[in-house]
């Protein structure tokens, strides 16, 4: 400890190279684990996005098929008029 004016401050302890190396190894392991987690989450996200896209495509196809199966007289009037050239 060292005194500066009225306050006592502790001197910073110098670290050994081996303790710094040990911490580097620890942090590298943490980083590797975090990267693996990011990869797993990214894969899960891509899978969910693909499922959503497939579901939306099925809904669109079902709506298209349903629309094609409706009788001709169930269209809306303005649409029929545009197609027939009236009004």
In short:
The protein is mainly alpha-helical and 87 residues long.
**Range of helix content:** over 70%
The tally of strands reads: 2
Strand content: 5-15%
Strand ordering within the main sheet: 1-2
> What is the helix tally?
2
Low-confidence stretches: none
Which series of helices and strands comes N to C?
A: EEHH
> Could you tell me how far the N terminus lies from the C terminus, measured between alpha carbons in angstroms?
97 Å
Global morphology: rod-shaped
**Structural class label:** mainly alpha
Rounded mean pLDDT score: 84
Would you give an account of this structure?
The chain has two helices and two strands. It is mostly helical. The longest helix is centred in the middle third of the chain and has 53 residues. The N and C termini lie far apart (97 Å).
Helices, strands, pairings?
Blueprint: E1 2-4, E2 7-9, H1 17-69, H2 77-84
Antiparallel strand pairs: 1-2
Question: What descriptors fit this protein?
Answer:
mainly alpha, 2 helices, about 90 residues, single chain, 2 strands
């Amino acid at each position: 400890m060292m005194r500066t004016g009225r306050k006592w401050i502790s001197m910073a302890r110098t670290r050994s190279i081996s303790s710094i190396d040990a911490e580097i190894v620890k942090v590298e392991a943490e980083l590797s684990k975090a990267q693996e987690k990011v990869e797993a989450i990214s894969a899960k996200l891509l899978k969910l996005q693909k499922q959503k896209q497939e579901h939306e495509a099925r809904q669109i196809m079902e709506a298209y098929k349903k629309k094609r199966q409706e009788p001709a007289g169930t269209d809306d009037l303005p649409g029929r008029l545009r197609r027939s050239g009236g009004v």
